[in-house]
């Protein structure tokens, strides 16, 4: 089931990171704990060979980073739009309220990037949510947790790749909201896991991931291929 | 006085010296060529100026930001350390676990910032004496009883976390010249946001008030009131970079969501004003 990320009101994006083997392992193991994980990782390792010569090119410099964020926000928004169309069975009022709020935040992020990028914006991406069981609380919240933690790590890793202080501040305004989402989703799954050792290390630090590592994971949910070959790396 | 010898020795201590100075090559060669003519006493000043360019100019601003962050982390670390140790304050079970988790993170942030400041050749600022009643040392401020009144404790915790997120956000631009320090600050910043979300969730559950959410709506204090309003002023922004977020591109994004979707920075001075009553 592939879905156009651009349902009447949405699209998404996300953004920035830095590499760290240990953190990446931590993140991937976190992912391995989710319901959809096994298939997901399988898909990642197999269909994720973004040939530098094809796919949706994010561009270079700060614009490339903003498009990277836009791509991730497109994915998140599409996911929550689908989640809120028909909630998983047994969704509580609190869960419905939070998931609806998060949907609207992600739509706001997506549309903000779309407008900010103007003519340089990448097109609407096509999602592939076939691995997600939208009737299953564990599947929906497990995927949401993975998306939110990934988003935080993505923005944290991309911060250093941004050269314009105004863009850095905008990314900073968004990443803390993604971190709030991540904490909330984690608490819905297990109260008190908002910042446990699968998310935050012994130094009290959140994760940061470089774009290629983020896109490997995100690519498992996209039919569209992303070409990040022109993104800055330091 | 052999300046090149000094630089060679320094390079043994700091293998990256040459890279730091790569843009100052002409300055180095210029100095070396006139070295023989300089009075011995003048050399340290010339070198000092050179090294200020190599290290000082970029790191002094960074150290200032880190000292500022350290002060805030001292505040949070001591607050949670005292709160976790206060008999009968935090209920057993998940609340105790959550407060311990946050306490440990804040203490880790203190250690990390101290280490980083030392590595930049500066001395960490000492830990201030705090008055968590916000009474400027009187112990009789608006939050008197914070370590015996659990709802009040959570209210102050929420304010510290939300303020901390805004404080780091306001300083990010100052760190843009150092990838490592910026990334570390971002990694702390998002952890503070996770804390804020959880403390808000705890308050929501405690008070059965479903208007308290993990994110900040407008400039609402979540029922804490005027004493903490300064920590929330300016959070009600609904346009970003000149782009109005409400109803953007025909979507159903309402004003509440528009303000919740973006956290706003606070200036250093605004943060200092907020925490001043807590510092004796």
UniProtKB/TrEMBL annotation, chain A:
Domain of life: Bacteria
InterPro entries assigned: Ferritin-like_SF (IPR009078)
Pfam families hit by this protein: Ferritin_2
Name of protein: Ferritin-like domain-containing protein
Gene source species: Chitinophaga caseinilytica
Automatic annotation (TrEMBL), chain B:
InterPro entries (alphabetical): Ferritin-like_SF
SUPFAM superfamilies hit by this protein: Ferritin-like (SSF47240)
Full protein name: Ferritin-like domain-containing protein
